[in-house]
Every structure is written in C-alpha cells, then in structure tokens.
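Task: fold both queries, return tokens.
Query 1:
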Amino acid sequence: LCFSGFTPADTLPGDTSPLPCQIAFESDRDGNREVYVMEPDGSNLTNLTNNPADDMQPAWSPDGSRITFVSDRENEGEGGQFIYVMDADGGNVRQLNNENESQWPDWSPDGKRIIYDHLGDIYVISADGGQKSKNLTGSPENDVQPKWSPDGNNILWLSGEEGKKDIHVMDADGHNKSRVTKDAGVHDAVWSVDGRIIGHWDGKEAGCFNC
C-alpha cells in the first residue's frame, strides 16, 4: 500500500522525477507479523508497530497522516482481533472498534470513516471512534474484504464461501446492493482510479467491470 501526498498536477511541466511515496506493508521477518513502512527503493525500512502481537493489513488514510491496521494485541478487555489506528510514524495507537475477529479495514476517501468486515458482515465506523459502528450488510452470507470507491459513493465486497465468492456493490450507506459477478470464485477485488472494479480468481483471466 503506497501513499503519495502529491498529484501529477503538483509537479513542474516536463518533470519526470518519481512522486514522493512510502509503502506500508506487513511482514513476519522479526518472528511475528508487524506493520512496516519503507521508501519505494526499499530504504528507510521502519517497524511501526513493534509489538509481540500480530499486526497486519495496514491501510493509509487519504491524507497520509494515519494508518489503520488489524491487531490481536492485548487490550483493556479480554483481548481479540480488532481494528486500530495510529499516526504515520507509529505513534498514538488506539483501538477503534469493539467487534472481535475484525479484519480488512479501508478508509473512506474523505478520511472520516473506516469500513471492515466482522464475522461475515461489513461494518462502518467513524475514523475518530466518536460514533458506534454500523452493520451495512446484515445478511446470512459471508461478506468480507470491503473497499471504498474512489468517489466515496460505493463500497464493494466479496460474498460467499471460500472458492465461491462473488463481487457485490452497494451505496456507501448500505442501500442498493447488487451482485457484479456470478459464480466467479473471486479471491480479491479493488477499485481502479477511474471507478472500475478489478478482481482475480482461479482459472480465469482478471476481469474488469465498468460500474
């Protein structure tokens, strides 16, 4: 996952130098999963979490100031796997939600909300933790891996059992749910910057669906 605080419009005409960028990723190189950042050339590798628990699935906030991630670290309760938020330098770590076994967080484009999945449903919560989480799907299906659209109007997610998942799309408030693929067995899907959906699955070429 890469964050760049600049856009092509910020560069000088004719400037072909690469945009400033840091990559956030998870690795178990130190014995357990931690969240790291580094420069695109691999330099300045930094362990941001540095915790004996497993820290994983990092996602940059749109402005690059914060990172959300999943952790099973000790907390004030009975422990579990929750969504956390920290500053880009690894400071100010705080637990965001209270649903155990949460995973796959993703920021809204305006940086105000975070979506994630918990026990087969898609949830949304304010990024500052000031409001209670809301279940957006509430179905008996296995709903996982949500992603915000670039304009913030839609959310995609995968639904179905392992090896049989399909891509679904809904409005950001949970309304107007629709299935995009049928019997595709999708492993994961993301939005392109122009609002299309790109996914991959076994035995088929990557599909791109104009939504």
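Query 1 returned. Query 2:
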Amino acid sequence: MTQVGTLAYVMPPAVAVVFGLAIVAIVMTWAPPSRSRRLFVLMVAGLIAWGIAIFGMRTSTDIAVALIWDQWSAPSIVVMFLGFYHFSLVYTNTSGQRRALTIGYALLIIFLLGTPAGLIVEGVRVEDYGYAPISGVLAMPAVATSIGLLLAGIRTLIRRYRTSSSYDERSRLLHLIGGACLPTIGLALDI
C-alpha cells in the first residue's frame, strides 16, 4: 500500500503553496515597487509552481496524470533558484554577471522545452511512500544548475554581508541567507 493521497504525503507541498502565496501578498503590500521585488516574486512563484506540481502529482491516482504533474516540478525548481540568483545580484547591486544570467535563462528555456518530452522526468513509478520520478537525460544537468544557482546566490549575499557596515543591511542579508537555506532543508526533509 502506498501513501498516495494521504495527508502526510500531500501536506508539505500544500504548505509550500500557502506560505508562498502569503509571502507574495506581504511583499506586494509592503515592499516598494522595484526590480528586486519583481525578482523576489519570480523566485517565490517558482516555489508556488513547484508546490502545485508536487501537490497535483501526490494527489493523482492515475500514474499518467502523476507523471505530467511531476514533469513540471523540475523546471519550477530551476525558476525558483534562477529567480533567487538574479534577485541576489540585483539586491546587492552586483555587476558583471550578465554571462551567468544569460546561461541560466538559456538553460531554463532548454529545460522548459525538454519537459514535455520527458527529458527531465521520464516517468514515475509507484513506491511504498508514493510516486518516485524516473530521471531523464536532463535530470542531472537540471539538478546541477539548480544547486549552482542557489550556491551562487548565497555566495553573492555573503560577499555583500562581509562588505556592508550597515547593521540593518547585515540583518536583512542574514535573513535572506537563512531563508535561502529553507528550500534546501525542506527538500531534504521531504525526501
């Protein structure tokens, strides 16, 4: 018997969606309009899209439908971490990263185009805990891209933290660095 559809199985992505929507509402209400705000919302939109995709997959009783949902979770993660990296560059006013951003967005387009063809998630199989993805040929490049973008964004924030003399800015940067670790912790706990 699998856990497909059980509360413990579907709750984590549902919580991610609810918190993501709350974060977007708070940011749109309180943060002044800016490029960094738009990129922050893009990052959180990736989290929301991931949560919706995983929730859809985990509540599906048809394996073919679960596959479609699971396939779209991977590019959502890339959107989240690319949005975070781009946000970190704009927020810290770091220049000279145009090439890295161009490569990141080009890879995102490749991953998006490869998603319907099953190049990231080729299939799903039923395990004791629920559905497990069967990796496609672009799965490892997508994972490596996501991790690289996350680490590059954290590195950008840490560099700014080290050079800042403002207590308020250093405090905000620490919150952003800590917040950047939450998706990774959540993903590890979910696995």
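Both queries returned. Flag for query 2: The mean pLDDT is 91.
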